[in-house]
Amino acid sequence: MNHMNSITKEYDAIIVGAGFSGLYQLICLRDQLNLNCLILETGDDVGGTWYWNRYPGARCDTESHAYSYYFSDDLLKEWTWTERYPGHAEIRKYMNFVADKFNLKKDIQFNQKVTSANFDDSSNSWEVVSNNNIYYKTKFLIAAVGCLSNTNIPNIKGLNEFSGEYYHTGNWPQNGVSFENKKVGQIGTGSTGIQAVPVIAAEAKHLTVFQRTANYSIPARNQPLTEQFKKHVKENFNFYRELIKKTPNGHPFEISKRLVSDVDEKEMNEIYEKAWEKGGLQFRATFNDLITNLEANKTASEFIKRKIKEIVKNKKFAKILSDIDHPYAGKRPPIDSHYFEAYNRDNIDLIDLKTDPIEHIDRNGIKTKNNHFDLDIIVFATGYDAMTGPLLNMNITGKNNLSLKEIWQDGPKTYLGLQVPGFPNLFTVTGPGSPSVLTNMPMAIEQHVEWIRDCIQFMIKKEYKTIEANNEDAEVWGEEVNSVANKTLLPTVKHSWYLGANIPGKPQVFMPYAGGLPRYSEICEDIKNQNYKGFILA
Ligand code: N01
To answer: Mind listing the pLDDT tens digit for each residue in 301-321?
Structure first.
């Protein structure tokens, strides 16, 4: 590619994406290292994943006091969340608050989607092209594109013939969608679908939910925060910072050391009952062996299935919803606001796609093997081409015109989820092979962004021009990612998006690092202290 004449400007660092990662990366590189930086962002405002996810019920599953940047005491003092779990609009407000406080927008170009990025061996720099045919040149390229930003609408025959409206939850219209008096069909019952169902059902004339795999969910018990709790958080943010940095998933609660076999059945059920009443992802932390021991896991699974049957009055629905084929939290565990209760409404229907699969979509709605459903709106809560999708979408070519698509055709290979061999000076924030989606994202992001900052600072100090992951070290890291995952039940769930199984044809490789954020951070720190062992510096 030779577009040198059209290159508008040269940068030290271009960051792709203005979500949690991109904003903090800009602060680190521009304000702390004094580099000339730019963010390129597809949307017309900051927010990243939260810019696009405005679907009904969209709310974070992490408690608000942990779903925050922790790098700035001032920020922690100045910002106050209003609910236990922040809704999408409040998160965007927060991100705008951060952008304004640190004066970030002046270095963000909105409505610029990166369509290709090519490493130029002769100048050791990246040439980046946007959808508006603008050319940029940069020494460092930082992909802060998120793990769940590449929406997946399944290829169902006839969708283009549908005369109604259809939407993917991850690309929701900015002004919302009115369901009033509409017959709505929703495909998908993952974390997103489970949040959307009760809200859509409350507004629509009728909602038909199409479920392929039944799912667990724990009540979120969302509520406005009391003034007392808000004060408590502000007075104790140092405590919470330490806590979330030492827990494997970056959440503000510890995982119990107790095993299921340490207690009798009565005590076990009391523990589960208490956790169910408290609500949230803490349910997963009640026992230490839920994610590693299938027998232990069964006790939690059975407890939740019992709860579903108690809540859902319609026996047919209760059976479809509780007929779950995988261990609890083997897939990303959803939490909900009155999801199972929604099936007690008069205006809802639930279709089990295992026995009545979708055949096609036509002008009027969805045709399954045994039925036809007339619909005005179809909501696709069908997830993402996760982790690798957003990176592959950028058409990245590294040294010797090597394309990322080619070298990842059998699955992603990275060193620490931070770099890919053959792609010098390209950093991936929360890339495949890092804890990322198995953690509270802002925590994983802060760790990565700061590591990248320190690495670039080191390079500048030592006058290195390039850094690149060593191939053998990336191989070894891939084996470590697999070996750690295999100590858990996660890879046993063969239809999980953690493995890429939700996307037809995607290589099935367990993508995130399951060893926990503290252990991962220690490994990264150790590598840094050994002058970036496993990376080639030149
Ligand atoms: O996507 P999913 P999601 N025909 O892939 C079904 C994060 N998140 O958007 O299970 C019929 O989990 C699919 O069925 P199956 C969180 O990390 C965070 O819900 O593959 N159905 C499944 O039911 C989460 O894990 C928050 O058999 C089809 C659903 O669609 C991640 O985002 C909130 C289908 C997709 O579930 C993704 O969640 C929400 C087809 N062809 C989400 N294809 C926070 O709070 C797919 N499905 C931060």
So the answer is: 999 999 999 999 999 999 999
